[in-house]
Amino acid sequence: MKIALVQDLHCGAGWRDFSFLKIVTDTGIVGYSEYLEGFGSPGLTGVIRRLGELVIGEDPRPVETVVTRLRLVTRHVPGGMAAQAIAAFENALYDIKARDLGVSVAALFGGPYRTRLPVYWSHCGTFRLNHHEAMGVPQPRSLDDICALGREVRDSGVGSLKTNIFLFGDGEPQVYMPGFGRTTGGPELNAEPWLVDTICRQMQAFRDGAGPDIGLKLDLNFNFRTEGYLRVARALEPLGLDWLELDIFEPDALARIRSRAPMSIASLESLFGRRQYRSYFDAGAVDVAIVDVPWNGIAESIRIANLAEIHEVNVAAHNFNGHLGTLMGAHFCAAVPNFRVLETDYEDVTWKDEIFDPPPVIENGELLLPDTPGWGTTINEEALAAHPPANRLWIGSRDG
User: pTM of the full predicted structure?
Assistant: First the structure.
């Protein structure tokens, strides 16, 4: 078996594009992976195309041999888009290998430990604020609307939700995101008293609507510094958050936050490979380690989870992709013992299900792991063509 074709596929998905790597073998077996270019990685497709030139004619089944060669030729620029591009190849090659053997990807790694995976409703309200028209849902414009959204989550059967910081005022509602340069508040990133109060009132509205049994998660992203994260954490103690999620590129600072916060701390989704994760584990910096399979590759993600287990830390899959990305995260979660929860965008553009054959099944708040070969889905290229890509950066609250 040899690799005969490397092709990138794209489609519009409302406020961003879905992107896929398709690898075709001379025997007709096809492998897919999903990657995300529009969020902070402009030019990633170009990197994938150039690396693809190196794998044509190679046997795809010894995946680690192919992946190691790609890592060697990019060794002087570890991480970033080089790592994301290599991960796209790794994930598509494991899809081929699993299909060739007639097993699921999770089975290649000794799994599954579990076939029903608890999910949480990610970006709850966040996408509605900026993209309600593409989703065909009402735009939240008040805390009363947030309370009603909490009731929707409770009624959906999903056990927990994760949200971001919302600002309601006289103008358009806004997702507060200075850490990514999308709103005011940066680069200083201070947690002013009015902002901490705003966050507390928002999360109380979610609690009032969702009730006491729904887990609440808040993602603070890169929006504060150490002092600010601690201010927010202390203020939210009465609400009993499931976890507080944040990003900071300093293990000791994150460990200090974890040691003083009254709730679990989840982080590390922006890291690449075991070498980057190790210093955070050594510092005791997190309660939950978040791992991005499209960024790291399924095999490296499992090695990260193995490292986390040595430090008595559970892992969660980072995922704000299409359904293929969700299933890639699901096979990772199914193949490791130290699993916490699977992130999923429970609501999205109305045509999302058309692109994937079949889409994932979520039942009573749990994703049912497919037992079909590979990831358990393929790309409907005809449906893909009906939604041409926008080819633009996903810049959140300023992208209309």
Answer: 0.96
